[in-house]
Design brief:
- With 420 residues, the protein is an alpha/beta fold.
- Helix content is 53%, strand content 9%.
- The protein is built from 18 helices and nine strands.
- It has a seven-stranded parallel sheet with strand order 1-2-3-4-5-8-9, with helices on both faces. A two-stranded antiparallel ribbon has the order 6-7.
- Helix 15 links the parallel strand 8 and strand 9.
- The structure holds D-arabinaric acid (RAT) and zinc ion.
- The site of zinc ion (ZN) has 4 residues, from loops.
Length: 420
């Protein structure tokens, strides 16, 4: 039996260059971040101290620091950043993905990282104008649009929406409802305080009020989708407030408004509370629950990402069975080159181009630069291999084919899914 054909080394290199060029030139719709429209002022994090105090780096620094956690948290942001810089960048080489990311960002923004001079970096950022810096970061990352994570339960964010403001169209709303689904006893009095007739018991009337709440906020923020992150033991169907709210309020609301519901599965919140935002962990999810949702609610659209590496293959198989499921992103602990490359290859091999392989999850504006630069490298490598495989059996991917495909992966497939 003959083996499949070959392509010459120069041909393979030329193909890889072409793919790299197209991947770099294609704008991205970043469908999940924690960035805010600049109108939210201080809620939009940016600059070197926010980069250094990113919770991914806080977790890494805590492994090395010798001070009690409370002492760390009592420091100003600048002092925390000083400590993280000296611990993770100066005393050891910054090889972790989150450390490398800071350096990629600085390098691509034109700063000289060779000097290792934190004060000079601070001076540069202090001289920037935020509005121009937003545009610079978006352009440098070649990101066209960004989904925010918008929570009505956030006391800092809610009043900004209530007072209204002029929207920056690059920042798209996405309605986050974790407190509603995960802690109804505490969410109910909050909804009641905001004028919804919500009580502890989930009667038909209360469900109606939850739907009114969802409809009001969907409209207020012009949500592109609704979303929740769920622990590994999430199940469906189940006799819980969460499952009941999902079935009776969230899914009917999504159907009525034609919006997808995003599930981010597998986070164990607060496994080390001393680390605060950096203290969450991961667990393997029961994807039967997701399968039951997709099968039980064919009129609903689901977006899903899973945190555990062990769940990735199963997720692709579920997506092969249900076209109302759109897989997205290498989320959080999976957003490291080794795992992201493996996941991207596997997804293309199992579900082709009907996937959104990455979202940045940026919490600090400048992170867009590294998150997308690092992922573009991975995607270009994976796609070049896949196209080379096609070439070896005589299928010639044209430049237009490649441009179309990358456009799909960087937002086209997502937009089509949302519009379906
Ligand atoms: O990746 C992160 O920054 C996490 O803290 C989470 O915010 C996660 O992405 C989430 O949206 O729950
Ligand atoms: Zn997130």
């Amino acid at each position: 039996m003959a083996m499949t054909g070959t392509i010459t080394e120069p041909e393979r290199r030329a193909l890889a260059k072409r793919v790299e060029r197209i991947v770099a030139a294609t704008p991205v719709f970043d469908i999940h971040t924690h960035l805010y429209d600049p109108a939210f002022k201080y809620l939009l994090l940016w600059g070197i101290d926010d980069l250094l105090t990113y919770h991914y780096l806080v977790a890494e620094a805590f492994r090395r620091l010798e001070i009690p956690s409370e002492q760390f948290w009592s420091l100003s942001k600048t002092r925390q950043a000083d400590l993280i810089w000296s611990t993770l960048f100066i005393r050891h080489s910054p090889v972790s993905e989150a450390c490398r990311g800071v350096l990629t960002t600085l390098n691509l923004l034109g700063l000289d990282v060779r000097k290792r001079d934190l004060s000079a970096l601070r001076r540069w950022f202090a001289g920037q104008n935020l509005e121009k810096h937003v545009t610079r970061c978006l352009e440098s990352a070649n990101v066209e649009k960004i989904c925010m994570t918008n929570s009505p339960f956030d006391d800092l964010e809610r009043p900004v929406w209530q007072n209204r403001f002029r929207r920056d169209e690059r920042f798209v709303g996405a309605l986050r409802i974790d407190p509603l689904l995960l802690d109804w006893p505490r969410a109910a009095p909050r909804l009641a305080a905001w004028g919804y007739h919500a009580g502890a018991e989930l009667s038909g009337q209360v469900i109606g009020e939850v739907r009114r709440f969802l409809a009001d906020w969907t409209k207020r923020i012009s949500a592109k989708y609704l979303m929740v992150s769920l622990p590994p033991d999430f199940d469906f169907p189940e006799q819980t407030d969460c499952a009941r709210l999902l079935e009776k309020a969230v899914l009917p609301h999504c159907r009525e408004s034609g919006l997808p519901f995003a599930l981010m599965l597998g986070v164990k919140r607060g496994v080390n509370p001393q680390l605060r935002l950096a203290g969450d962990g991961v667990g393997r999810s029961n994807l039967q629950a997701l399968q039951n949702l997709c099968a039980g609610f064919p009129e609903n659209k689901f977006l899903a990402t899973v945190l555990s590496r062990e769940n990735q293959h199963e997720l692709c198989v579920v997506a092969r069975k249900f076209r109302n499921l759109h897989v997205f992103g290498c989320w959080w602990f999976t957003n490291v080159p080794s795992v992201a490359e493996e996941m991207t290859r596997m997804r293309l091999e199992l579900i082709g181009l009907s996937v959104t392989p990455q979202q940045s999850d940026a919490r600090v504006l400048d992170q867009l630069v590294y998150k997308w630069s690092h992922f573009r490298e991975i995607l270009a490598r994976v796609l070049a291999d896949k196209y080379a495989d096609l070439r070896r059996v005589g299928w010639e991917p044209t430049t237009a084919d490649i441009e179309r495909d990358v456009g799909e992966l960087f937002g086209g497939a997502f937009e089509r899914f949302c519009a379906s």
